[in-house]
Amino acid sequence: MNDKRSNQDNKPQLDAGTNLGTISCTPTELDYRLEQDSASGYSLYNSLAVFAAHYRHAPLQAGAILLGIILAVTLLIGVKSTNENAVRSYSEATELLSQRASLLITPNTGEQYLDEQVYFRLRQAGISQALAVINGLVVDSEGRRWQLQGSDLFAAINLQQHSGTNQKTDSAINPHIPLAKLLGAKNILLMSQSLADKVAPDGLFYLQDPLNEQGSPISLEVVGLDDEFGLGNAIVADISLAQSLLNHSQKLSYIALFDEPSSLITQINQAQLLLQQATITEQDQGQALQELTRSFHLNLNAMSMLAFVVGLFIAYNGVRYSLMKRQKLLVQLLQLGVQKHMLLLALVVELSFLVFVGSVVGFILGLQLSLWLQPMVAMTLEQLYGARLMPGSWQWQWLVQAMALTLFAGLLACLPLYRQLTNQPLARMIAKSNQVSHLVKTHRMQFMIACIALIGCALAFPFAKQYQVSLGLMGIVIIAIPLLLPLTIYRISEWMANLFPTGLWHYMIAETKELIGPLSLAMMAMLLALTANISMNTLVGSFEITLKNWLESRLHADLYMRPASDKILEIQDLLSKQEKVSGIYTQWTIASTYQGMPIELVSRDLYSTKVTSSLKSQTDNLWSEFVAGKQILISEPIAIKYGLNIGDSFNIYPFNHASTHQLPTIGAIFFDYGNPKGQVVIDRSLWQQLQLPQQPKSIAASYQGDIGQLESLLLESKLISNAQMYNQAKIKQQAIAMFKQTFSITMVLNSLTLIVAAIGLFSACLMLIQARQAPLAKLYALGINKRELRLMTFVQMQLIVLLTCLVALPTGAVLGYLLINKVTLQAFGWSIAMLWDWPAYFRVVVIALTTSAIAIAIPLYWQTRKPLISSLQQEAL
Fold it and tell me: Which UniProt keywords apply (predicted)?
């Protein structure tokens, strides 16, 4: 063996018979290298075998690591799957029960419906790839409004089968749709199975008769289709039935075309098939929806990453505890000749294996979580943006991405700890070194890093103009805040120890400093969850109050109506004859664009404009210039998104007519909430100058009496249906319901993050109490009974949790301020007055203390039931 080692310094020689640059070794040196490689592989194998045997005897340690990884990956994959499916739906969205349209033929500006003769002309011209559609609102027997879509179901199914893109759907739809009943003109509605089970469990759905809404409701048979067909909350009927239920005979909302766009447009224009009765537009492949919903999905991603970080804290805490318990075992392996780099490699392989197992389990659970979250997201997107999600799908790439991200984060966090353990001298590792001083030094360094990061973010925030940048800076703040916690609690407990006289209680407070190190990661995770919860409660509570106050000023009329365009003048005439009607207000609305994005161009009577516009800023001579058509009002989201200010010119696309026409300037910016499209308000004089449609789109009325009397009068006139009328109470109710739905998904993720942190605290307490058996046994040997030991340990840990909650209150307020005044303002364009919800904060603190009490009491009771003298015997060994 000595001869072999003496040859290891021999330099390799170039073999003349090989290519240049190929190195050869002497036989002796080659044998030695093979022996070394074999020994290294054997050491690695044996080290891994020893680790596996250790985990068989201490499964709690491996379980704690896996728990953190599983929880982190579960929430990450759950939200990622939901978001990816939503974005895919925008670009692949199809007509209901059909394929994706390439072109849409829509009514001219100012018109609500198409004449179905346009559709017949297209079919007669040989354009068979066309689908007629009508949309509208219907009211059920309980007064609830539902979106009804009617289309030629036979054409839709034929188009889908012709596309050949979804064989599963082709084979599954036909058996479920009762074609014979449709041919027999039976009254049948199609719904998703989940919606049908909710609203029509007996297979029947009752709608008000549009011709006699005060009479008996119409009974309709419901056929439930699998949720995979993506109907969402929509109700589908054959077009003839839908036209009857909507009371719009021979009318269409639009016509969908499915052939190649350029050739279709050429054919239609050459044959003059539209006769200036409609407009043809090309689909944007979902880009507009992606732009509108980008901030919503970014919010979900931010919450999932927060939960991911909390999960990694738990995993890292488990790794550190496992290494602490295996410290003697690692020393013994090094003493037996295992090289340090091989021991480090074994630890890395062990972590990689745990990451693989945890990621696979978390991936499976994440897909299940996505199935639970998707209906909530689908309802929010459908109500806010009119987007309908397609059936969910998943990809193996998500598992690889989650695994790679988890492994990278785990190695980044654990490698310094691994190197610290494997590079220390063996004598020092055996000795009982002072761990507290080392931890205090680490915590002091973390505190300095956090202060530098927070100061940097404070300097950068005033210059952040995009919500993506603000969200990134806020992410740094979220990471920095937990780094402040260990040293802060250490100094507070050090100060508190001086307040108690010598004795058991002084010892309890003084020993609390010893617990901060082992519990610091769990407390960091808890602080993150509490801070996020407090900040989101601040945002949601503030926005709810702001929205209610805004609705009070915005809704000045008692009844709002959107009848058919040919009925508006008759309704105005009817209202003007009613003595109790104190005011009639009109509104003109058309869709427009600004820099390629859709906006709403609105004009109202001057009184309504003044009363309903909650102005954020304005010029001194606003109303005189507004009436003259020289100034306009724009909503706050438009102003923030495009960087517009008072006095800037505003080009109203696509209605920039003559070059001699002076473009209006921005005279005021008004608050606007919950509207995904920006609004521009102009005076009637400018509306007429731009030659926009003169027919009002909606009207409103103030009524001195019971508003139900006016509604009944209008229904009896047959000029308007119940689905086309909204009173103040209903609008407020729907607005608040939509608001709660918008934030419900975020609050669910917030609650899940808190649950993850609570689980992490439970595992940390369990591991810590198990590790403290020997110190507790010493106190027991000194005469302190088990009841006092339990009380002392319980108070120690609850004190740390309470201090964490107290730190979370100001940090949560800081994050709430950033969410309201930076991220939400820049992402949605909503100025929100920040309000303090002290009862909500108190509830969060109580929940945290209750959760921690359970997390502490259960493992404490388990461990102290055992004979404590055995712990002293194990310590001696």
Answer: Cell membrane, Membrane, Transmembrane, Transmembrane helix
Q: Residue 641 in contact with residue 686, Cβ under 8 Å?
A: no
Sign of CA dihedral 252, 256, 262, 267: negative
Q: Among residues 251, 254, 111, which one has the least CA distance to residue 693? A: 111
| Amino acid making up residue 1 | M
Assess if residue 346 is contained within a domain: yes
Last residue within a domain, chosen from 660, 691, 719: 719
Q: Supply the angle between the helices 340-385 and 396-423 in degrees, to the nearest 10.
A: 140
Do the beta carbons of residue 378 and residue 195 sit within 8 Å? no
**Segments in 461-503 forming alpha helices (H):** 467-497
For 602-653, the DSSP string reads: EEE-HHHHHHH--EEEE-TTHHHHHHTTSEEEEEHHHHHHHT--TT-B---B
Same domain, 79 and 191: no
Domain count, the chain: 4
User: Which amino acid is located at 637 in the chain?
Assistant: P
pTM, entire model? 0.72
**How many Cβ atoms sit within 10 Å of the Cβ of residue 699?**
21
Residue 97 has pLDDT above 80, yes or no: no
Query: What residue has token string 């006289």?
Result: 501
CB 366 within 8 A of CB 304: no
Instruction: Quickly list DSSP for 569-605.
Output: HHHHHHHHT-TTEEEEEEEEEEEEEETTEEEEEEEE-
Q: How far is CA 196 from CA 149, 209, 404, in A?
A: 16, 20, 42
Q: Is residue 728 part of a domain?
A: no
**Furthest CA-CA distance within the chain:** 117
For 680, residues 6+ apart whose C-beta sits below 8 A from its C-beta are 592, 594, 599, 600, 601, 602, 632, 633, 634, 635, 638, 650, 652
> CB–CB of 565/644 below 8 Å?
no
pLDDT tier, 646 (very low <50, low <70, confident <90, very high otherwise): very high
347 close to 42: Cβ distance less than 8 angstroms: no
Is a pLDDT exceeding 80 seen at residue 216? no
Domain of residue 45 covers 2-49
Q: Where are the beta strands (DSSP E) in 661-772?
A: 665-670, 678-681, 698-703, 725-727
Residues 20, 125 within the same domain: no
Q: What is the pLDDT of residues 549-599, one digit of tens each?
A: 888 888 888 888 888 777 888 888 899 888 888 888 989 888 777 876 778
Q: Please report whether residue 38 resides in a domain.
A: yes
What is the distance between the alpha carbons of residues 505 and 144, in angstroms, rounded to a whole number? 63
The helix/strand/coil state of 464 is coil
CB 365 within 8 A of CB 70: yes
Can you state the angle between helices 728-771 and 786-818, rounded to 10 degrees?
140
